[in-house]
What does this fold into?
Amino acid sequence: MKKELVKLIDLSRCTACRGCQVACKQWNELPAKRTRNLGSYQNPPDLQWNTWTLIRFQEHEKKDGKVNWLFRKDGCMHCTDAACIKVCPTGALYHTEFGSVSMHADKCIGCKACITACPFSVPKYDPETNKIAKCDLCYTRLQVNQPPACVLSCPTGALQIGAKDAMIKKAYARAAELGGDANVYGDKFVNGTHVVYVLPERADVYDHLPVDPKVPLEMIIWKDVLKPAALLTAGAVVAGCFLHYITHGPKTPDDETTCEGGNKS
It folds into this structure.
């Protein structure tokens, strides 16, 4: 088994050049679509089936009244305890040997269960193909020991990828170096994610970034409790039928019944 990898996103080094956003589209051959200007440099307004990496722009007023422009690279967090994998009925979503979450597009039936389950609102639906789409951490590149396209394109070192333990250690060292409200985000949630942020500000400052992301309780109950119980029950029924067949033989038609007086009908 190959080592788990973590992509480290140091937002203190991000200049919002959007090179990662362009590189993602180019490598994955994602088509462009017409978008609407909503008064922000951010474009498109959100992740889409054809936009797996998005730089979010956000103005943030600090306690001293100064306004900072915050940038955040958004995309799949590649959770260890991935809700999307838990709810996928066809096995279209799966963990790779690197710990990332990839997808067999041919198995996707467009049920949209993963959209509801994901605490980060990442999977997006394409009505034309009836498929879900999202970042796969450039799985084919990782297989040949190449970094994801977004990491390769980053000119400032804001994006890095490497062994899980090394990247998490580097993240905490960088947060300590920055000081103030700087913190590490991702390694403590859903049994850890394979995308980890160094945030210069508290997590609750950033738009579209859940402070405490969790797998929905109903998903846990269904996948980890009810579904296994149902499978065990079904297995017990099959085993009982087989045991009855072994001990009593096959079911045979009832003998012909007789009418009153002993005559056969």
